[in-house]
Design brief:
Blueprint (H helix, E strand, L loop, with lengths): L4 H21 L7 H8 L3 H7 L3 H13 L11 H16 L2 H13 L3 H29 L8 H18 L6 H13 L7
Length: 192
């Protein structure tokens, strides 16, 4: 017989809180199931009943507590829409979301299932939405008809992820605006 639903919900919340707080203190590579269980005041079997691995637990917290914050409003033009998304991502990358994202990408180098889950359950849906916006803008004549939507997304968001991982330049609002201006300069429709 399992825990009553209210106990299970309380345990789940305590576990998510524990993972969130521990990741503020240390990188994902140093997080242990033992530390999470101790902080959440639950047994390790409870963790493994709900999440088969540390990576699955971190991904659950990531989606529940951090990734939901990245939903941004639609704007009048594709350039404005992409700008809002890029600037929002830059802002998030400067906080715990960015730390956890970088940790997950690093952990994914030795565990491809992490990268697969990160892409399928987080990056892919945002990418599909941005690609649809670009295709719609091409149909309206806002962008040149020969623009490759997937390459455009990579040209915009690739440097932001590169900056997160290599920290070669500060991810600032100015950087984001300059990046968007530069990329869109080459893809705007040249209609008179």
């Amino acid at each position: 017989m399992g825990r009553p639903p209210s106990d299970a919900a309380a345990s789940h919340a305590a576990i998510m809180d524990a993972v969130y707080e521990l990741l503020k203190e240390k990188p994902a590579s140093q997080l242990t199931m033992e530390a999470v269980a101790k902080r959440a005041k639950v047994g390790k079997p409870t963790l493994y009943k709900w999440w088969p691995s540390k990576a699955a637990l971190i991904m659950a917290m990531f989606h529940e507590r951090l990734a939901g914050n990245l939903i941004v409003p639609h704007t009048a033009t594709v350039e404005a829409s992409i700008r809002v998304k890029a600037l929002h991502l830059i802002k998030e990358f400067n906080g715990l979301f960015g730390k956890v994202m970088a940790d997950l990408i690093a952990e994914g180098q030795s565990d491809p299932s992490i990268l697969r889950e990160l892409f399928e359950n987080h990056i892919s849906m945002r990418r599909v939405s941005a690609i649809a916006d670009i295709e719609h803008a091409k149909a309206k004549g806002e962008l040149a008809p020969n623009v490759d939507a997937e390459l455009l997304i990579d040209a915009i968001f690739g440097p932001i992820y590169y900056g997160l991982l290599l920290r070669h330049t500060p991810l600032t609002e100015k950087y984001g605006n300059d990046l968007i201006d530069q990329v869109f300069q080459g893809v705007r429709s040249q209609r008179p």
